Amino acid sequence: MSVIACLDLEGVLIPEIWIEFAMRTGIKELQATTRDISDYSELMRMRLDVCSKNDLRISDIQKVISEMSPLDGAKEFLDDLRQKCQVIILSDTFYQFAQPLIKQLDNPTLFCHNLDIDENGRINDFLLRMDDQKRHAVKSFKALGFQTLAAGDSYNDISMLKESDRGFLFCPPQNVIAEYPEFGVSTNYKELESAFAL
Hints:
The protein is an alpha/beta fold. Helices cover 42% and strands 21% of the residues. The protein starts with a strand and ends with a helix.
């Protein structure tokens, strides 16, 4: 049976973009992620409201992203994994954010969302591809006859991990570990590679 590994992006292969942006701007509200707030739409509405109030535009966020790099060892892990199976990145980030970092990872296939940006660079809205897209993607891969492996670190990854044939948490916060003890936990890429057992 063919295998597809489905990986989250932020927290698994790259740093959390909004945390980095919060550090650069000094705006504490922007430090919240899906590790803290399980409802992704609620989280994004809060983020865009904060950006609007502080007149922060897409160019401000993209400048920070342009200075970021993948997590240590991420590219090597991904390169090795892609030799063993097909890899799809399933993320709740946005194409307008992710591309510079995806390029540094040698352009793996990425399924994520889009932003509605006006001519002045203000982010008006976020456009989800579909609700719970990670789970739906894994379910579709299984329907196509693929065995699915999955790894993520946050609340918004849980439905993907549950749907997958084998799902694992990667460097998750303690609150997620405590709430979902059914998933194995890997704290580095070597452990995750062993968990995948390819």
